[in-house]
Design goal:
The complex is a heterodimer of chains A (452) and B (125).
Chain A (H helix, E strand, L loop, with lengths): L1 H16 L8 H23 L6 H19 L8 H22 L1 H139 L2 H36 L7 E4 H19 L6 E5 L6 E4 L1 H25 L7 E9 L7 E8 L6 H4 L19 H11 L3 E7 L3 E9 L1
Parallel strand pairs in A: 2-4
Antiparallel strand pairs in A: 1-3, 4-5, 5-7, 6-7
Helix pairs in contact in A: 1-2, 1-3, 2-3, 3-4, 4-5, 5-6, 5-7, 7-8, 8-10
Chain B lengths: L1 E5 L4 H9 L1 H5 L4 E5 L2 H10 L6 E5 L7 H11 L6 E6 L4 H9 L4 E4 L4 H12 L1
Parallel strand pairs in B: 1-2, 1-3, 3-4, 4-5
Helix pairs in contact in B: 3-4
Chain lengths: 452, 125
């Protein structure tokens, strides 16, 4: 029975050398070593001893069963559990065989071949189980390696994810910051826009100021002159009364009353001009009111002309008006439409002034403004206001940009570039249209159409 | 002496008539009024030598005072009426142009009537 002892030695050695014991449990390592030594001693005893002595057989069974029990009961040897299935059949068959030989030799003799065959198969089974387990172990190992690799991969992914999350957080913070900055910029832009609209209004007011000064000067002269005349007349009336010339005094009184009316009239005229100026500088009420478009157009024509004259005293231009008296009052926001008319007139005067610089002789700078009631075949009709100049016209590459905000052909500081853009918006807000016709070298006509 | 006053402001008529009422009463001066350059030319056409002196505003709608001055000096040679220009814009360019066209005098608004009266009386002599 050398095989069982050798098997026991191999098993103990296997357990002792297994990574679960070597270097992990010095105690078990020692015990196993002792066990192995005992088995080797048993082997030597078996070789030397008489073949008939079956004690070594029983001892080897005992050793194998002890090993199997150890594997079965101790946690440390769990990894070797497969050995129980591999070795147990061999041990059991060996024990039954030897027991039957001991108890009933006749039975043993009768069944001896069967026992040998069973022993052989159990023997084969040990190797087969060993090989299968080894194969399984390898597959398991492989799987374990793969799992480890997957875990490694997973860890890499995790760290990448964490890294990405940090980056995303940083980006988000950046973007939030940028968003806030942009919002701030938008707020600033909005206030700048409001300021620009106001400054455009003030710029056109600046152009008006001189014209307004001139327009106020005339009625003021009358107020001064007629009040002076009245003082003189009162003196004369006193003299006439002293002389007792009641008739003369009465005639003078009539004159004084007339002059008083004139003073009042011209005072109101100046008042109206100042009010108009204030109305222009004030932000638009946005309220439509019945307005005489002819009066409005005439007022701004004179104001813009005098405004230009005050800036450049050498400048002269003919002004022509062609008002359709049948229009009557139309519902518009007077400040807003006034601004549009003023813008168009200022541009028209600028155009003829520029042409004047180029052509000294034989050119009569002319700016015209006209109104016309439109009777359509369908609908409710409207009013057309035309502002014409005989300047140089607008070249095509400029024409496509004239309604863009901040576009100007004037030198820096002279134009805000908002005049026509604002005019366009105002006319659109009135539900109307602002159109332009131009011929290079001949002039430009802007037409405001307002529905009534 | 007949004086033609050309101004687009109609109240100028009332003002002149009252400022010079003594002279008018005493038949020293006679005033005629035109409210535009075109009207002034029309008056002169029908009343040649109808005015000895013309007082004209420069800035008027339609024909400007300077254009009127040029036409008067061109058309009425023997003897041309005296023309005094009155303007709110007393700048050099206007003054030089008026003088070049043969203006006899150049006044700025607001008109100093005391000075104007003296000038007119001096012209009478």
């Amino acid at each position: 029975m050398i095989f069982e002892i050798v098997l026991a030695i191999v098993l103990i050695n296997y357990l002792r050398r297994s990574p679960q014991i070597t270097g992990v449990s010095a105690e078990w390592s020692k015990r196993l070593f002792i066990g192995m030594m005992a088995c080797i001693a048993l082997l030597l005893f078996d070789v030397i001893a008489d073949k008939q002595v079956k004690i070594s057989n029983w001892l080897s069974y005992l050793a194998l069963l002890a090993i199997l029990y150890l594997i079965y009961s101790k946690k440390e040897f769990q990894f070797a559990k497969f050995l129980i299935y591999a070795v147990l059949p061999l041990v059991v068959i060996g024990i039954i065989k030897d027991l039957s030989a001991l108890i009933s030799p006749s039975f043993y003799k009768e069944w001896g071949d069967t026992f040998d065959v069973a022993e052989f198969f159990a023997f084969v089974w040990v190797f087969a189980a060993w090989l299968i387990t080894k194969k399984q172990r390898k597959a398991l190992e492989k799987e374990k390696m793969m799992a480890l690799a997957r875990e490694k991969e997973f860890k890499i992914t995790e760290s990448l994810k964490a890294e990405l999350e940090v980056q995303v957080k940083e980006r988000t913070a950046d973007l939030t910051k940028q968003k806030e900055e942009l919002q701030q910029t938008i707020i600033e832009l909005k206030s700048t826009q409001a300021q620009l609209v106001q400054s455009e209004k003030m710029a056109s007011l600046g152009e008006l100021t001189a014209g307004i000064a001139h327009e106020i000067q005339n009625p003021l002269n009358f107020v001064n002159n007629f009040s002076e005349v009245n003082n003189e007349l009162i003196e004369e009336m006193k003299e006439a009364l002293d002389k007792g010339d009641i008739e003369e005094a009465k005639a003078i009184t009539a004159d004084i009353i007339e002059n008083g009316k004139k003073i009042n009239f011209h005072g109101k005229r100046a008042d109206g001009i100042v009010k108009g100026m204030l109305q222009h500088s004030r932000s638009s009420s946005g309220v439509k009111e019945p307005t005489d478009i002819n009066v409005l157009a005439d007022e701004y024509l004179r104001l813009s002309y005098h405004g230009l004259r005050a800036k450049d005293k050498t400048f002269n231009a003919s002004m022509k008006t062609d008002f359709d008296e049948s229009i009557g009052k139309i519902n518009i926001v007077p400040q807003d439409i006034g601004r549009v008319i003023l813008n168009l007139l200022t541009n028209a005067f600028y155009a003829v002034k520029e042409k004047r610089k180029l052509i000294k002789e034989g050119y009569e700078p002319t700016v015209s403004i006209g109104t016309k009631k439109i009777y359509p075949l369908f609908g409710s009709g409207g009013v057309e206001i035309k502002v014409m100049d005989n300047g140089n016209g607008i070249p095509p590459h400029v024409l496509e940009k004239i309604f863009q905000p901040f576009f100007t052909t004037k030198p820096t500081g002279e134009g805000t570039g908002l005049g026509l853009s604002l005019s366009y918006d105002i006319v659109k807000a009135h539900g109307g249209e602002l159109k332009v016709e131009t011929k290079e070298g001949e002039g430009t006509t802007f037409t405001i159409y307002l529905p009534v | 002496m007949k004086i033609l006053v050309v101004d687009d402001e109609e109240d100028v008529q009332a003002l002149f008539l009252q400022k010079f009422r003594k002279e008018i009463k005493g038949y020293e001066m006679e005033f005629v009024f035109a409210f535009s350059g075109e009207e002034a030319l029309q008056y002169l056409q029908t009343n040649e030598h109808g005015a000895v002196l013309i007082l004209s505003d420069i800035n008027m709608p339609g024909m400007s005072g300077l254009e009127l001055l040029r036409l008067i000096k061109e058309r009425y040679e023997k003897p041309p009426p005296r023309v005094m220009m009155i303007t709110a814009y007393g700048d050099d360019e206007n003054y030089n142009q008026a003088m070049k066209l043969g203006a006899d005098d150049f006044l700025t608004k607001p008109v100093d009537f005391v000075a104007l009266k003296e000038k007119l009386k001096a012209k009478l002599v």
